[in-house]
């Protein structure tokens, strides 16, 4: 097996030379102006070490990567009952699509498209103040990363609250089918704040250790739950780009429009990558290439 740090440096150099970064998310004003020419990678290994390249201590907006953590928290609260409100099938549609919701009578295909994540956050909220649910998600992430220095960027949340008409439409449409238990604005406010959590790649890779089932990871996720989450990340974690990611990378992963990626090699390593330019699916463009090269060079795949 090649040396991890040398491989990370080599991939980072190649990607930087290619300078094919894509554009940051344009629909969230706070993210639109970020310089796309950035790449950070962190890998946590089973021996408790973390290897990194690039600006691995720079916090970035985790956006939809937060959906993994809100799902863990919601399942902890409601158990398998959540699956009566949201499915576990890939959607084949973009992350913010509304088309399937009508024919499927308000039941989102999976918890990683926006409609499914809004239902998941609604289940976690369950009549409480949004700040209680947010404290629960943040507390879970901090415990999984074993790092309390993880926070919500209120400006990013406000920026989405101002401009997130599509998500507002999704929430109200879900409510029309009786699949939101709280007022849409409360659920959405919670959802926008959870998406605005910022983490470094070191913190995100550490938070992924329990999903990878690494020795020494905090004992937070039962093995069966981790296995199911990995299955969902593999089949749905990149929306309509999930097949492409599985084909090229061969690993469970979750992306966010902030350019973050969490990639799990079950039993072996947890990987976090950040590069803010996006591909046509809204997933990190350079980050996806980095994940593909890393899994290939290291022989990491679940197949
Ligand atoms: N794909 C994403 O990261 C989407 C998250 C973003 N907050 C949204 O709801 O649109």
From TrEMBL:
Keywords: Acetylation, Hydrolase. SUPFAM superfamilies: beta-lactamase/transpeptidase-like (SSF56601). It comes from the Bacteria. Substrate binds at residues 64, 114, 160, 167, 191, 239, 257. The keyword Electron transport does not apply. GO terms for biological process: glutamate biosynthetic process; L-glutamine catabolic process. It catalyses: L-glutamine + H2O = L-glutamate + NH4(+). InterPro entries: Beta-lactam/transpept-like, Glutaminase. Its EC number is 3.5.1.2. It is an enzyme of class 3 (hydrolase). The keyword Hydrolase applies. GO terms for molecular function: glutaminase activity. Signal peptide: none annotated. Belongs to the glutaminase family. PANTHER family: GLUTAMINASE. Homotetramer. This is Glutaminase. It comes from Primorskyibacter sedentarius. The lineage of its organism: Bacteria, Pseudomonadati, Pseudomonadota, Alphaproteobacteria, Rhodobacterales.
């Amino acid at each position: 097996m090649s040396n991890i740090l040398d491989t990370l440096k080599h991939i980072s150099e190649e990607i930087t030379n290619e300078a094919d970064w894509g554009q940051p998310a344009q629909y969230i004003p706070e993210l639109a102006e970020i310089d796309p020419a950035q790449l950070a990678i962190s890998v946590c290994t089973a021996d408790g070490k973390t290897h990194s390249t690039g600006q691995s201590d720079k916090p970035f907006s985790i956006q939809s990567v937060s959906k993994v953590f809100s799902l863990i928290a919601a399942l902890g609260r409601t158990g398998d009952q959540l699956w009566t409100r949201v499915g576990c099938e890939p959607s084949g549609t973009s992350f913010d699509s509304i088309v399937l919701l009508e024919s499927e009578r308000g039941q989102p295909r999976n918890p990683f498209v926006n409609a499914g994540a809004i239902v998941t956050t609604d289940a976690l909220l369950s009549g409480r103040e949004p700040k209680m649910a947010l404290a629960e998600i943040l507390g879970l992430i901090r415990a999984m990363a074993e790092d309390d220095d993880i926070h919500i960027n209120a400006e990013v949340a406000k920026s989405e609250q101002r401009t997130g008409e599509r998500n507002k439409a999704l929430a109200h449409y879900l409510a029309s089918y009786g699949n939101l238990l709280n007022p849409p604005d409360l659920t959405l406010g919670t959802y926008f704040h959870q998406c605005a959590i910022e983490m470094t790649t070191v913190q995100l890779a550490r938070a992924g250790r329990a999903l990878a089932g690494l020795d020494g990871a905090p004992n937070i996720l039962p093995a069966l739950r981790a296995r199911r989450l990995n299955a969902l990340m593999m089949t749905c974690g990149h929306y309509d780009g999930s097949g492409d990611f599985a084909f090229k990378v061969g690993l469970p992963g979750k992306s966010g429009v902030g350019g973050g990626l969490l990639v799990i090699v079950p039993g072996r390593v947890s990987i976090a990558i950040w590069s803010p330019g996006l591909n046509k699916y809204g997933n990190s463009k350079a980050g996806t290439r980095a994940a593909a090269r890393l899994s290939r060079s290291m022989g990491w795949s679940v197949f």
